[in-house]
């Protein structure tokens, strides 16, 4: 309970609230946006306002009398992580000052949930880092492409000359092998180009549901028998504007990652939704996007891995099993298309990757008006499940 105003004074005895009634004072504290706790010098909570209870994710009554769990030092501002029963942990800035409570020395802690601010800062830092890597990658791609062109034309010339000299079959085999390598190099530069946002996209208005349905055979073959595919396609989904081929590559990259994460058994879910939910980067513009989410029941990833997955060449896979360019392609494609991407993952539970794709302008949400310039079937899609033994 809040004490009377007369009792609230700081250590130096400044009675700054003289004249305010107990009721007014209580209203003030109970309605302030910051969390307020009074904590004994041993760290036990003596009073909590509703904002503090919201930060801790429990009723006020549950908070009072519990030990705060860490020593509280007067005069300090520190950042603590609050673990809550049913929600993600919160980053909380806590400032403490000494005060007298019930005639005994205690500490007044004011709490501010800075999770959203920290997440924005981290996001900004990641985007800047990825942009720098993107510029670097674009430079490498440019030089490497020139190099490959020289390499390839030289080899072809040599091949032509050797064809006229049948006495040398080994050289010709070697050249064949080298040509294959140049093609691999070409594919690599294409993926780097996709990441560095230098690729030329051909955005077109497409029916995302139709496009995903058209991929199911390919996905089934790619994922193998132990993995079932679950499609939940929103019949009200509006058309989007993206490069259809790059979208296919992105979905395939996500599916292959899911397959690796599930080690042969599990469920891959692809869900579309006309109502994308909140988009952190553009909260006010969320309605301009639709969402496609690719989820798996695989091994999940730690927070540390999650912050690196979009970097080109970042891989946790054994040598030769991954180049670390799959998610770079997805990221580059989404950003270049004007969309957004978000990862949710829990170690041991699975991963969901949300792609927010720009809605086609002036088409409204009427599924009957969906038109696909790629000529794919545009019949309204129904939520359905594909099960395989
Ligand atoms: N669905 C997922 N579940 C768990 N971890 C994932 C998932 N998707 C990606 N990762 C992690 O992100 C890393 C980077 O993924 P990315 O697709 O960019 O590269 P890769 O799969 O390792 O190689 P590549 O796709 O080039 O063959 C992976 O090595 C893996 O650690
Ligand atoms: Mg991959």
Automatic annotation (TrEMBL):
Cited SMART domains: HATPase_c, HisKA, PAS
Catalytic activity: ATP + protein L-histidine = ADP + protein N-phospho-L-histidine
Keyword Magnesium: no
Pfam families: HATPase_c (PF02518), PAS (PF00989)
SUPFAM superfamilies noted in UniProt: ATPase domain of HSP90 chaperone/DNA topoisomerase II/histidine kinase, Homodimeric domain of signal transducing histidine kinase, PYP-like sensor domain (PAS domain)
PANTHER family tied to this protein: HISTIDINE KINASE (PTHR43065:SF49), SENSOR HISTIDINE KINASE (PTHR43065)
Protein name: histidine kinase
The organism of origin for this protein: Mesorhizobium opportunistum (strain LMG 24607 / HAMBI 3007 / WSM2075)
Source organism phylogeny: Bacteria, Pseudomonadati, Pseudomonadota, Alphaproteobacteria, Hyphomicrobiales
């Amino acid at each position: 309970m809040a004490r009377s105003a007369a009792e609230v004074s700081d250590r130096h005895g400044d009675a700054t609230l003289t004249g305010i009634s107990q009721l007014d004072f209580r209203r003030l504290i109970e309605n302030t946006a910051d969390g307020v706790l009074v904590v004994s010098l041993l760290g036990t909570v003596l009073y909590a306002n509703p904002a503090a209870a919201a930060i801790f994710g429990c009723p006020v009554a549950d908070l009072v009398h519990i030990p705060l769990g860490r020593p509280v030092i007067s005069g300090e501002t520190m950042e603590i992580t609050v673990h809550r029963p049913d929600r993600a942990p919160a980053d909380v800035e806590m400032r403490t000052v000494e005060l007298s409570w019930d005639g005994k020395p205690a500490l007044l802690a004011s709490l501010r949930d800075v999770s959203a601010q920290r997440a924005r800062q981290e996001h900004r830092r990641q985007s800047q880092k990825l942009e720098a890597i993107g510029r670097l990658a674009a430079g490498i791609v440019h030089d490497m492409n020139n190099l490959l062109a020289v390499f390839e034309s030289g080899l072809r010339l040599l091949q032509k000359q050797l064809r006229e000299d049948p006495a040398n079959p080994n050289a010709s085999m070697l050249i064949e092998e080298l040509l294959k390598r140049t093609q691999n190099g070409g594919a690599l530069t294409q993926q780097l180009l996709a990441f560095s946002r230098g690729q030329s996209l051909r955005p077109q208005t497409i029916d995302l549901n139709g496009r995903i349905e058209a991929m199911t055979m390919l996905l089934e073959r790619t994922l193998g028998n132990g993995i079932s595919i679950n499609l939940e396609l929103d019949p009200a989904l509006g058309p989007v504007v993206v490069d259809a081929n790059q979208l296919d590559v992105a979905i395939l990259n996500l599916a292959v990652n899911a397959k690796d994460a599930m080690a042969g058994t599990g469920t891959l879910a692809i869900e579309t939704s006309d109502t994308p939910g909140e988009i952190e980067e553009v909260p006010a513009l969320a309605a301009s996007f639709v969402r496609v989410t690719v989820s798996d029941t695989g091994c999940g990833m730690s927070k540390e891995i999650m912050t690196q997955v979009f970097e080109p060449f970042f891989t946790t896979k054994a040598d030769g099993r991954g180049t670390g360019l799959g998610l770079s392609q997805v990221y580059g494609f989404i950003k270049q298309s004007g969309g957004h991407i978000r990862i949710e993952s829990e170690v041991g539970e699975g991963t969901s990757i949300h792609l927010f794709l720009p809605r086609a302008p002036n088409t409204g949400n009427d599924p009957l008006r969906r038109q696909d310039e790629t000529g794919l079937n545009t019949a309204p899609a129904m939520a359905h499940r594909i099960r395989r033994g």
